[in-house]
Design goal:
about 80% helix, mainly alpha
């Protein structure tokens, strides 16, 4: 299930990047993308420890 969540996050990130944004919207999107990357890293770390969500 964790691998599926990682794939879903990847799809969300792709969808967010494909939208043209400027100014505050762009900055907010960058923050969100960083947070999604943090979640992905956490999930991968947990999978490496044998923990599945």
């Amino acid at each position: 299930m964790t691998a599926d969540m990682i794939k879903q996050i990847k799809e969300i990130k792709k969808a967010m990047v494909s939208i043209e944004m400027t100014g505050d919207d762009w900055e907010e999107r960058e923050v969100i993308l960083e947070k999604l990357e943090d979640v992905t890293s956490y999930l991968k770390d947990m999978m490496g420890r044998g923990i599945e969500f």
